[in-house]
Please model this.
Amino acid sequence: MNIKLRSGTPADAEICGKICYNAFKTISEAHGFPPDFPASEVAIGVLTSMLGNPNFYSVVAEIDGRIVGSNFLDERNRIAGVGPVTVDPAVQNRAIGRRLMDGVHERAASKNFDGVRLIQAGFHIRSLVLYAKLGYDVREHLACMQGQALNIAIEGHVVRPATDADLESCNRLCLGVHGHDRGGELQDAISRGTATVVEHDERITGYATVIGFFGHAVGETNKDLKALIGASKEFIGPGFLLPTRNGELFRWCLNKGLRVAQPMTLMSKGLYNEPAGAFMPSILY
Ligand SMILES: CC(C)(COP(=O)(O)OP(=O)(O)OC[C@H]1O[C@@H](n2cnc3c(N)ncnc32)[C@H](O)[C@@H]1OP(=O)(O)O)[C@@H](O)C(=O)NCCC(=O)NCCS
Model:
């Protein structure tokens, strides 16, 4: 089988998006879970924006000129985010996924990223094995949480929309918790108008790019994350990703009526600092 890799272009969005939708739908339904993307148009939309964004590197796999899969590298921060990697279900388990991972790892090495991260569907043995063999370590078990907006305020923790003027404080906070900032993503989220900050004792003690699948959040304490979750009007996409090792926050969400949609795993290769605070990763890590 002659597999060829090339860079992706916006013209690949439709075929790659359909493959992405089918790949996730097939594996999710085989395990009794709802698909990550509710319709192929949603997957096409997400890949269209990634393929058209110069901060994302993309790689497409072809067999005899036919596209069979794609993968992405989010290059907005010092730690690069890998995925979504998807292969046409008709040709899975034939090393195409491995080649697509090699493609983004070569790119990450050439750009000297400090490390790479990804979120893995916890029930999917093949991706778990593939990533482990490629050198990724399991860092956190996650629950993808979904439910009705909580409309809860946490005393002394005021949530408001984030502005450009908050960027520096938020980046400092993220650096303190993770050892690196995620300023690229935060800047995008502020421009989109989805980012929020929480203030306590007259300073910023937490922020979220969005409380949802594609957003991350950082807080000095669980109270900061509770305030951000409690103020969110909805949980965009399949849900937000909560490290279940944070038992106190996990139980708080469960006791407020939120449900676990599916288990997921945060995996990393290269630099990883044990977080020194409360956090929630995004699906892009
Ligand atoms: C995950 C995915 C991209 C992997 O691509 P792929 O082409 O199917 O996988 P590969 O053949 O490259 O690698 C699979 C590896 O798992 C191994 N494997 C599969 N099942 C296994 C098992 N039960 N135990 C041990 N190893 C297993 C295979 O032997 C292979 O390892 P090898 O390369 O050393 O032989 C693809 O299956 C896919 O699109 N899945 C659905 C979407 C998805 O979940 N994407 C990832 C998001 S986290």
Q: What stands out?
A: Residues 23-24, 27, 83-87, 92-98, 120-121, 124-127, 129-130, 133 surround coenzyme A (CB under 6 Å). The mean pLDDT is 96. The radius of gyration is 18 Å.
